[in-house]
């Protein structure tokens, strides 16, 4: 059975299609297709509070295209979710009605907590030390979800309104970093050594730039070194020298800053990069529901 997840984020819109198989009570999930379209809703919302007419047109066209892609792949069940930018847009209700009317999609807006839980669900899909301590960090365009995992159990998690597009727009509230610092400081009690798990397109790019192989760790110092190299050149040189897409070359710097600040505060030296995210969590949840 093929399932699909649509993630309408602040920096881009993604369609992930995966094939789910069940055998003897076990689930196997294989990636079929991933389509990413750089419709940056957060650029509007974090600046004006609304999604512009032009971006609504782009969004509707993207969703129509996704419908045809799903049809070609014979997707049987799908779920479309929107995150930070849509949560905050003053005209989100009208936008969702337009998508439903013109693209035949009913989109749900995820709360920050629901988004964090779906991202965290990927933890169980990774072959990690069941007795280890991990800090799940997912950096998006509008928000960052952080989850503490201890001995295979979620201890606590929270969504913070700081993301790459929001930072580029200069719309991060001053108290956010203080809130993150306080949350991480309270988390550190009795946690012992912690390894980060980083998710999101930017950390995947950092992992690739560092020449890492699957299952390898990327260190705080390696991320810091890449940040120094990337910030030492302008946007055009970043695109050509590091072979980055234009819509990745600008957001990768604030992403580095977020990962580094969180890792430094939590005294974390190493990070796993499993290359999964919200879309994977959505499909995993649908597969688990079908199994049940």
Write the layout of secondary structure elements.
Blueprint: E1 2-8, E2 13-23, E3 26-37, H1 41-48, H2 53-72, E4 77-82, H3 84-88, H4 92-103, E5 107-109, H5 112-120, E6 133-139, E7 144-150, E8 153-160, H6 164-168, H7 175-187, E9 195-199, H8 201-209, E10 217-219, H9 220-231, H10 235-241, H11 246-249, H12 252-265, E11 270-272, H13 278-291
Helix pairs in contact: 2-4, 5-13, 8-12, 9-12
Question: What can you see in these coordinates?
Answer:
The protein is an alpha/beta fold. The chain has two domains: 2-112 and 279-291, ATPase, nucleotide binding domain (Nucleotidyltransferase, domain 5, 2-Layer Sandwich); 129-275, 2-Layer Sandwich (Nucleotidyltransferase, domain 5), CATH 3.30.420.150. It has helices at 41-48, 53-72, 84-88, 92-103, 112-120, 164-168, 175-187, 201-209, 220-231, 235-241, 246-249, 252-265, 278-291, and strands spanning 2-8, 13-23, 26-37, 77-82, 107-109, 133-139, 144-150, 153-160, 195-199, 217-219, 270-272. Strands 8-7-6-9-11-10 form a six-stranded mixed beta sheet, with helices on both faces. Strand 7 and strand 8 (153-160) form a beta hairpin. Helix 9 (220-231) runs antiparallel to helix 12 (252-265). It is globular, with a radius of gyration of 19 Å. The mean pLDDT is 91.
Kindly list the characteristics that best describe this protein.
Nucleotidyltransferase, domain 5, 11 strands, 2 domains, 6-stranded mixed beta sheet, 292 residues, 25% strand, globular, 13 helices, 5-stranded mixed beta sheet, alpha/beta
